[in-house]
Design brief:
By secondary structure, the chain is of the alpha/beta class. It folds into 2 domains: 165 residues, P-loop containing nucleotide triphosphate hydrolases (Rossmann fold), CATH 3.40.50.300; 67 residues, no CATH class. The chain is built from 9 helices and 10 strands. The strands form 2 sheets. Strands 6-7-8-3-9-10 form a 6-stranded mixed beta sheet, with helices on both faces. A 4-stranded antiparallel beta sheet has the order 2-1-4-5, covered by helices on one side. Helix 3 packs parallel to helix 5.
Length: 243
């Protein structure tokens, strides 16, 4: 199982330090939940982990391999998969073709191997019966599932999720939570940013709260959520599940 080690990760944009000396570890095959108010630096942190943004300082080690200076494509081939808060399907392509993009351009597979990886990703996310449907016609839940399927087609050992539950109804949420839990139980290491805290609590083993780019609290989810500092930064934020 491929774990994650992050040490002193720092990134500024001009005079604004968005991620400030963040350090944490995630054991292989476990899930870390990341919470924090808007503007805390959560998405920038994921961008630093998947290589979209380069760190000013610090280290990112995945499965014992130092990927700090690797670009996003290299990290993807090394097992780092990513979903985005707003799904980004290729709307004019079918569901299967979207997954195939992940297998070919993410994992570097070709021919029957790429075809098989794409179909397996659709099966795991429950989209195999919609393989020939245009992605642009999908409802939000299925777009979220397709976003996840495209990441899975890359063959990740580390999966980064950015508010994948956002916008879903109470009826839709359990299906997605069960899928993420299944991935973790299958050995995938998960780092999940989410404002819907009760969804996180169904899956994550540990939790980290970011505030102003720094780690405010980290540890067992119940301990983090009970921390007075964490509750203070959430006052008035409308975060779901922090009562």
């Amino acid at each position: 199982m491929s774990g994650l080690e992050v040490a002193d990760l720092t990134r500024s944009f001009g005079a604004l330090r968005v991620v400030d000396g963040v350090s944490f570890t995630v054991d292989g095959g476990t899930a870390l939940g990341i919470v924090g108010p808007n503007g805390a630096g959560k998405t920038t942190l994921l961008n630093l982990l998947d290589g979209v943004v380069t760190a000013d300082r610090g280290r990112v080690v995945v499965g014992g391999r130092d990927l700090t200076r690797a670009d996003a494509a290299t990290r993807c081939r090394a097992g780092v998969g990513r979903t985005h808060q707003v799904p980004r399907p290729f709307t004019g392509m079918t569901v299967f073709e979207n997954a195939l993009v992940g297998a070919v351009h993410g994992a570097g597979l070709r021919g029957t191997a790429a075809h098989g990886a794409a179909l397996d990703a659709l099966r795991r996310t429950g989209l195999d019966d919609r393989a020939d449907v245009l992605a642009g016609s999908l409802r939000l839940l299925d777009r979220k599932r397709l976003e996840l399927a495209r990441a899975l087609a890359c063959g990740p050992t580390l999966l980064l999720l950015d508010e994948i539950a956002g916008g879903l109804t109470d009826a839709e949420l359990p299906e997605l939570v069960a899928l993420v839990r299944e991935l973790r139980d299958g050995g995938t290491t998960v780092v999940w940013i989410e404002h819907i805290v009760h969804a996180l609590l169904e899956v994550v083993d540990t939790m980290l709260c970011l505030a102003s780019g720094s780690v405010l609290a980290a540890g067992a989810p119940d301990v983090v959520l009970a921390d007075p500092r964490v509750r203070e930064v959430y006052l008035g934020s409308g975060v779901e599940g922090l009562a």
